[in-house]
Specification:
With about 140 residues, this protein is of the alpha+beta class. The chain has one domain. The chain is built from 3 helices and 3 strands, in the order H-H-E-E-E-H. It has a 3-stranded antiparallel beta sheet, with helices on one face. A hairpin with a 4-residue loop joins strand 1 and strand 2. Helix 1 packs across helix 2. The protein is elongated.
Length: about 140
């Protein structure tokens, strides 16, 4: 091998490895953001319909939403917070990349790559609103007929 090949080949391997790690990070972050939104939305609907606590809804539906999508990272840890008597629900989550590659080199932090996501939803009372609008429409039709 030549001197150029001994310098270029390790650099190419390093770049390819970093691209794979960045892909795991980006994929995990996107999926985590999506799952936080889905859980927050479902908790707001359940709180609106059944009056259940958002924490119970998130814990009950967490495993079904997560599935087996997190193959490059750890399972996320969720934190649920509700404000204004359960009208505003915030779901935060964090996970970590499981790759031990390049652990002590300058490009990868020693603590690992952790990604976080969170979403906030409001309980809007969709069912009551739809019923109210339908009732007002029916009353309006009777008045103008």
């Amino acid at each position: 091998m030549t001197l150029e090949a001994t310098l270029v080949i390790p650099m190419v391997i390093c770049v390819i490895t970093l691209l794979i790690l960045f892909s795991y990070y980006l994929y995990g972050r996107c999926i985590l953001s999506q799952d936080c939104y889905i859980l927050a939305f479902r908790a707001s609907i359940d709180a609106d319909r059944y009056g259940t606590a958002p924490e119970n809804t998130v814990l009950a539906k967490k495993e079904r939403v997560l599935g087996k999508k997190y193959f490059g990272s750890t399972k996320p840890v969720f934190h649920v917070e509700s404000k204004d008597a359960g009208k505003v629900i915030r779901v935060d989550a964090s996970a970590r990349i499981r790759a031990g590659v390049m652990g002590n080199y300058f490009l990868k932090p020693r603590s690992g790559w952790e990604f976080k996501a969170g979403h906030r939803t409001k309980c809007l009372g969709q069912v009551k609103h739809i019923r109210k609008m339908t009732r007002l429409k029916d009353i309006g039709n009777r008045v103008f007929d």
